[in-house]
Amino acid sequence: MKSIKTLNLGILLMAFIFTGCDDNLDLEPEQDLTPEAALGSANNIQNLLVGAYDLAGQNEIFAGSYNLASELIANTGELAWRGTFQGPAEFNRKQITTGNGFVADYWITSYAVSNQANLILENLDKFEEEEEAARVEGEAKFLRAAVYFDLLRFFSLPYKAEGGNSQLGVPLVTTGVSDASQIEYPSRNTVEEGYNFVIQDLTDAISKLPGSNPIDDFYANKFAAEALLARVYLQQGNYQGALEASNNVIESNSYSLTGNFAGAFNNDGNSTEDIFAWQITTQDGVNDMNVFWATRKFGGRSLTGDVTIEEPYFAVFNDEEDDRSMFFYTGDDTGTFSTTKWQNQFANIPFLRLAEMYLIRAESNFRLGSSLGATPVEDINTLRNRAGALTLSSATLEDILEERKRELAFEGFALHDVKRLEQSIDGLPFDANSLVLPIPQREMDANLNLEQNPGYTN
């Protein structure tokens, strides 16, 4: 049975960092660890790494809120927001304010993960074994890359495949802070610098990490880093890079599609196709995908679910035998539909699935006119066969993109696919200012070196 034990140390250290500048909170109980002690041994650094995983898997970012923002901002009638929280309602209206609490939490928690990763990377000399130090370095860089990639995708104008990405990205912070006196006030790097940073972190992680993590299989390994790199390359429009990375993951034979579509979701442990999943237990973590997307009967907030699936979405299905077209249920006597993907409130949240790698390989091969590993139609049929759908004799780009919508629906891809494919949302162009999150007002007030995104007032 999975168990993530976070002290804890990571929590104590982050509490110290984020409260150290408040005179009213300068109490230092005798049992608390000083930053020096917290970073003083290999065992403590390993614990800090576990804490970083736990922090990244919180509901403010990867355990639900990032996905919720992507799906609702991209919504053009396929979904309905029926909840009472103002933050997601702003996403759905594409009228996001600088005081949006969900946005502030994204920013704060993402940089908290980055800070813990930085502290780990600065203390690798605590490890006597070179192999262990390399593994810890790779895991820390995987986590840091994951948060910066989504910060860039949400808080910056889209990456342009043709180059010239001098538009503002996010601050790239590479120095760890364990004392309030060390806090700096960085300005924003460019999008080009941000993507280069993420790619370098993931490239390093691939070279440092083993194919199987010796601590536990739910921590990152080299294939998790390579799968995330494939996603990054696809977002850039670097189809050759995306093709090679996704093919490496598939051809590793380390993962296999679950026997049926349902088997990929609502699992207490990793499924066979989970390259990486955020771990949720009854003791630790909150599955906000369940909180907002499930009905009250299955752990959600309301009878209908705060997010419901509306009739326009179902037009993507052209085969009534496709299991994915039936992976929905109705709220109690409401007639509304909810996705079955998030029915278990204590289930893991898949982050990198093998199915996505097949889709990336199919699209990249199609765009390049190649067939590395398999032809595009063979990869699409691999997913369609698993879902019980009819196989295709050939596949167009539209077929591949529609397969993404069927397979990866409600998993946080919607907004990012709209932007990379240069589509529109309710008449808004893919690079509209209102489709970019504002820098939280609290950050603008605290750091005068930050420049707000276009379309938002300081």
Automatic annotation (TrEMBL):
Gene3D superfamilies referenced in this protein's UniProt entry, alphabetically: 1.25.40.390
SUPFAM superfamilies cross-referenced by the UniProt entry: TPR-like (SSF48452)
First-listed, main subcellular location of the protein, grouped into a coarse class: membrane
Domain SusD-like N-terminal stretches: 25-234
Subcellular location: Cell outer membrane
Entry protein name: RagB/SusD domain-containing protein
InterPro entries: SusD-like_N, SusD_RagB_dom, TPR-like_helical_dom_sf
Keywords for the protein's UniProt record, in alphabetical order: Cell outer membrane, Membrane, Signal
Top-level division of the source organism's lineage: Bacteria
CDD domains noted in UniProt: SusD (cd08977)
Domain RagB/SusD: 264-421
